[in-house]
Design brief:
434 residues; 4-stranded mixed sheet; 15% strand; Aspartate aminotransferase family protein; aminotransferase
């Protein structure tokens, strides 16, 4: 098995960084696993192809949006048809009515919906709705969970060591970037995740002050970490009891965990939920869904491209494809093959390797085998340096995994042959790192 040559990517990066900040469109892209990012020419199905002609089995999938794979015929045809009619009107369309109706049929919490363009935007809007509806301003969020990159959202999203997080019963509020206002965290209460009793005690300690609890229902950004049995329902019961709005950030889990998101998968219905990424299979689009009385409390969403016709067409086509029989069964089958192969590699190399999946979201980690309880537990157990070395080497042999987090995505176009090839690369890399 020969390593890929990526000299053209290196040359392009040196040229690009002269005129483009960081040399990339988003800093996420620079976390390719070497001294420079790989420049891609195109994607097809489950594969990406770089400027040196190399083919990659891709489990990053644009950091989640490409649920149906690259160049899905139905989605791209719908977009081309819409482009033929016009790309932007600043006016509603009949398709917008169809999409809103379809989402209210699919998503358990969705009595009505509102459209935006990105994960950051939908979370900002959901928080504003919760505050307007309750007349309160404090929000509970959880360590290691990412809800966007606005000043308030980018608080305590990561850490390198457990010690950085502070005491468990009074966690630090971590600011992550220069230029971020220190006051961004004033209305936030940060807690460890997966501890319903701590949520209860915190709400009771701040009577009449807490507008919302926001969480990833499956902790995907760092870990990822699954909710303990009964945890989501316990938080649902606590927030309902105290008149606190429960927000599920389903930007990642939406349509990936199930057609109804994680709330559909676990059978726990929040008051509001946010969606982006996979909702339109790679076209920029986002939505907030929730109870009518909260959604219509007087906070009107405004944005030039909200509900734009191209994103609407892509979202309608994506939902239609995901609604076909066998799609989610396909994810279960592939994940089962993946897990079985990983188990054999763990035995072969005497390594603790963790693998779980929910829908099309897979979790791959080193250093432990049992479910971590929260971000602190994961941070203390996970062999992050080994995972990073593993990911860098896998990319050199044509398999792309996500950096650090261990969150890998399946698309509807991944095949059993992709899994077999991936496991062969993993075998090669684990042998080299042994």
């Amino acid at each position: 098995m020969e390593r890929y040559c990526t000299e053209k990517s290196k040359e392009l990066y040196e040229k690009t960084r002269r005129t483009l900040v960081d040399g990339v469109g988003s800093y996420f892209h620079i976390t390719s696993y070497g001294e420079y990012p790989i420049y891609m020419t195109h994607g097809k199905g489950s594969k990406l192809y770089d400027v040196d002609g190399n083919e990659y089995i891709d489990y990053i999938l644009g950091f989640g949006p490409m649920l149906l794979g690259y160049q899905n015929p139905a989605v791209d045809a719908a977009v081309r048809e819409q482009i033929g009619r016009g790309s932007h009107f600043s006016a509603p369309t009949e398709d917008l009515m169809r999409l809103s109706r379809r989402l209210t049929e699919m998503i358990p919490c969705a009595e009505t919906v509102s459209f935006q363009n990105s994960g950051t935007e939908v979370v900002m809007y959901a928080l504003r709705l919760a505050r307007a509806y309750t007349g309160r301003y404090k929000v509970i969020k959880f360590e290691g969970q990412y809800h966007g990159w606005s000043d308030e959202e980018k608080i305590s999203i990561d850490a390198d060591r457990v010690e950085e997080l502070g005491p468990r019963d009074n966690p630090n509020k971590i600011i992550h970037t220069r230029g971020q206002r220190l006051s961004s965290a004033d209305d936030l209460i940060v807690l460890p995740w997966n501890d319903a009793e701590m949520v209860r005690k915190t709400i009771e300690a701040h009577p009449g002050e807490i507008a919302a609890v926001i969480m990833e229902p499956i902790m995907c950004d760092s870990g990822p970490i699954l909710p303990k049995p009964g945890y989501l329902q316990a938080v649902r019961d606590i927030t309902r009891e105290h008149g606190v709005v429960l927000i599920f950030d389903e930007v990642i889990t939406g349509f990936r965990a199930s057609l109804g998101g994680a709330q559909g998968y676990y059978g726990v219905t929040p008051d509001l939920a946010t969606f982006a990424k996979a909702i339109a299979n790679g076209y920029p689009f986002g939505a907030v869904a929730g109870k009518r009385e909260i959604m219509e409390c007087g906070i009107h969403a405004s944005g030039t491209f909200n509900g734009n016709p191209i994103g609407t067409a892509a979202a309608l086509a994506t939902i239609e494809e995901l609604s076909k029989p066998g799609v989610y069964e396909h994810f279960d089958q592939l994940a089962g093959e993946f897990r079985e192969g990983v188990g054999k590699l763990a035995k072969k190399y005497g390594r603790k390797i963790y693998f779980r999946h929910i829908g099309s979201i897979c979790v791959l980690a080193f250093g432990y085998e049992e479910d971590p309880e929260d971000f602190r537990d994961w941070l203390g157990k996970a062999d992050i340096p080994f995972y990073r070395a593993f990911v860098e080497k896998c990319e050199q042999y044509g398999v792309r995994f996500t950096d650090r987090r261990g969150r890998e995505y399946l698309s509807a176009q991944h095949t059993s042959e992709d899994i077999r090839r991936t496991l062969a690369v993993m075998d090669q890399v684990l042998g080299e790192l042994a």
